[in-house]
Specification:
Layout (H helix, E strand, L loop, with lengths): L9 H31 L4 H21 L9 H17 L14 H24 L6 H27 L3 H44 L1
Helix pairs in contact: 1-2, 1-3, 1-4, 1-5, 1-6, 2-4, 3-4, 3-6, 4-5, 5-6
């Protein structure tokens, strides 16, 4: 079902890590957002749905526009940038208190939405491109599984953290999930740098041999 040898391929590990961090980061926090704002801030269900739409709708629109990203920006770099931007948006959702209104969430959700669009546009492509020809289904399946596993674990962690102490719980959950996103970006970027470095070394070796 999944060839373990794929985990020796840095692009595959990077794409899988990005999917895992996406699920455990922004998806986990957004899954908890509507219920939190309705209960803790007495925001109407309509406004709660609007807040979620700000993130998801912006993500969809940005993903459609992401095709205009220059080809010089590799898929792995796009993953890292997307995760980093998502993390920034989540950090902007920190600091909620009993005086906050629904508008307090708007800037962070827009930033996270744009970054999510950039991230999602690259995830599917990299899932297929990171595996050998003819194994695209395996790469896509592994990527989706990583995202679902991350979401399942992340939602549980967020629920445990956020439900314990009201606003402090939400703020802690925002910090934890933002950190997951940023760490995911760091891992993907590091793997990309290692890959580039090894590619350059191989190129120098080949040139010297000639």
């Amino acid at each position: 079902m999944l060839d373990p040898a794929l985990f020796r391929r840095k692009p595959f590990v990077g794409a899988t890590t990005a999917a895992l961090a996406t699920g455990a980061g922004i998806i986990a926090l957004m899954s908890y957002l509507p219920g939190f704002v309705v209960v803790a801030l007495d925001i109407s269900a309509l406004h709660a749905a609007f807040l979620l739409l700000l993130w998801s709708g912006t993500s969809v629109a940005t993903a459609l526009l992401a095709r205009r990203i220059p080809p010089t920006v590799t898929g792995q770099v796009q993953l890292a940038i997307g995760l980093l931007g998502v993390g920034v948006g989540q950090y902007m959702l920190f600091g909620i208190d009993d005086s906050s209104t629904w508008t307090r969430f708007v800037p962070g959700l827009l930033v996270a939405g744009v970054a999510s669009g950039v991230l999602n546009a690259a995830l599917g492509r990299e899932a297929v491109a990171s595996v050998p020809a003819g194994r695209g289904g395996m790469g896509s399946g592994a990527n989706n599984t990583a995202r679902y596993v991350g979401s399942a674990v992340g939602v549980t962690v967020v629920a445990v953290i956020a439900s314990r102490s009201g606003f402090d719980g939400w703020n802690h959950a925002a910090l934890v999930t933002a950190t997951v996103s940023v760490l995911g970006a760091a891992v993907v970027f590091l793997l990309q740098r290692m890959r580039v470095g090894q590619g350059e070394s191989a190129s120098v070796t080949t040139t010297s041999a000639r």
